[in-house]
Structure formats: C-alpha cells, structure tokens
Amino acid sequence: MDYGKSGNPKGGKHEPKNKEGKNQTAAEAAEAAKKAKAELLERMKAAAEAKKNG
C-alpha cells in the first residue's frame, strides 16, 4: 500500500495557510490594517469613556 498517496494533499511550501487577502498589494494590506486598528482604538476609547462615566 502506498501511504504517501493517502490523506489530504499537502499545501505548497511557500503559500500562506490563510488565503484571505491574497490579491491585495502590500500597500492595500497596510492601509486595511491601519483602518482596522483605528476602528479598534475608537471602540476601545468609547468603551473606556462609557465605563468611566458609569
């Protein structure tokens, strides 16, 4: 029996496991990350303000 042929096929060695955002350029990815971080900070500040005010 050829055990090498059983199971799931192996992924490429230099391919990311997560295929999401694969077609983005580096600049687009950086811009998306900045936007996400800004939104997170905005939510955190609003939550801290709400907690502070009761």
Kindly name the structural category: mainly alpha
Mean pLDDT: 83
User: What is the CA-atom radius of gyration, in angstroms?
Assistant: 21 Å
Order of helices and strands: H
What's the helix count?
Answer: 1
* Beta-strand proportion: under 5%
Characteristics:
52% helix; 54 residues; single chain; 0% strand; mainly alpha
Topology readout:
Blueprint: H1 26-53
Structure, described:
The chain has one helix at 26-53. By secondary structure, the protein is mainly α. It has a domain at 25-54.
How would you briefly describe this protein structure?
This protein has a domain at 25-54. The chain is built from one helix and no strands. It has one helix spanning 26-53.
